[in-house]
Amino acid sequence: MTTFRVRILTATTGSVLLLGGAFVFQSLGYAPCHLCLLQRWPHAAAIAIGVLILILRLPRISAALGAIATLTTAAIAIYHSLVERHIIAGPTSCTSSGPGAGSVDDLLAQINNAPLIQCDQISWQMLGLSMANLNAVFSLLLAVLWLTAAFSRAPR
């Protein structure tokens, strides 16, 4: 197996493991918030890209699409990390910023429409790193792997 194919297989497997880990945590009762769910889609795309590259033997530069997918999930994860740490405001539909101005009916509607899981609350962390933090770090590493595959030289 060529170095290129090993890199693609490794990067694809990395996304499988990250996405699988998210589903394992969900099965253990850690329900995902809106931003958590958004981080899953680019990993699914990276998996599909990797499988297509391996099966169809697409050109090396197509691995750049995998890098774009993992950079996208890393960007969402970084944004989510900043929201979790209350450094920046998150989406109003997914944060516990408190009630806004308005009538009692508006407040009741806001409560009834609020998601059960808030994007600005850390539900699990290890060594001070939340799941969004870990996803950002590992996704950036996967993006580097995708890029090294995309711009690697073909064997002679």
Give a written overview of the molecule.
This protein has five helices and two strands. The chain has helices at residues 3-27, 34-56, 63-84, 104-113, 131-150, and strands at residues 125-126, 129-130. It has one domain: Bromodomain-like, CATH 1.20.1550. It is mostly helical and 156 residues long. The protein has a two-stranded antiparallel ribbon. Helix 1 runs antiparallel to helix 5 (131-150).
What is the rounded Rg? 19 Å
CATH topology: Bromodomain-like
What CATH first level would be assigned? Mainly Alpha
Shape, per Cα inertia axes: elongated
In whole angstroms, the N-to-C terminal distance is 14 Å
Strand order of the largest sheet: 1-2
Low-confidence stretches: none
Report the portion of residues in β strands: under 5%
Q: How large is the count of helical segments?
A: 5
Give the count of structural domains: 1
Average pLDDT rating: 90
CATH architecture label name: Up-down Bundle
The largest sheet is: 2 strands, antiparallel
Number of strands: 2
What structural class is derived from the secondary structure elements?
Answer: mainly alpha
Helical content class: 55-70%
The arrangement of helices and strands along the chain is: HHHHEEH
